[in-house]
Amino acid sequence: MDLSSAGGALLITVLRLLHIVGGLIWVGAAVVLSFYIEPALEKAGADGGRILRGLYSETSFPSLLPVSALVTTVAGLLLYGMMSYHETLGSSMGLALTLGALLGLLAFAHGFFAVWRPAAAYSALADSDADQAAALQGKLRRNGRVSMWLALASLALMAGARYIGPVLSL
Ligand code: HEM
Q1: What's the pTM value of the predicted model, to 2 decimals?
Q2: 34 lies in some domain
């Protein structure tokens, strides 16, 4: 498709919106969860555990991060292919976007295997076995923090890519 045509511009605009709004929800939710909700619930002891289990088993919260991350990643991959950034690796913008994309893909893979998949088991355990759920909760919290930092680093590289050249005098 000719990306300079009206149809091409519309497609890029929709993909950019999905990518950026999806990324905002993914990273924003991960930061709020890691830095605010989890520490507050941990301090609340058994009550905190009950609230967290309620969040995972009574609401659609378990899908928020995986779905927003999937939308961000799929739209990002399409944009990366369509805008031919692989051909501009020599430019500071192409390089920053590529590094950001690699970190974003890593954040997605780590989130999928180390957090979201085991979180489904957590939702199932939450009602039946509180002790096992508490053990899994600690592991999910640590792994979630790793994914959050990877996604945050990806966001920093993506958001700064356009202007990183002049800043580094490249
Ligand atoms: C945590 C995950 C991610 C976040 C928060 C994020 C965020 C962003 C933001 C804010 C921009 C806008 C930059 C600008 O226009 O100046 C952007 C652009 C872009 N992102 Fe990501 N991104 C993420 C992951 C990815 C991944 C995994 C890929 C591809 C595999 C990707 C590919 C792209 C591309 C190609 C652009 C440039 C689009 C254009 O030129 O119109 N991103 N991203």
Answers
A1: 0.90
A2: yes
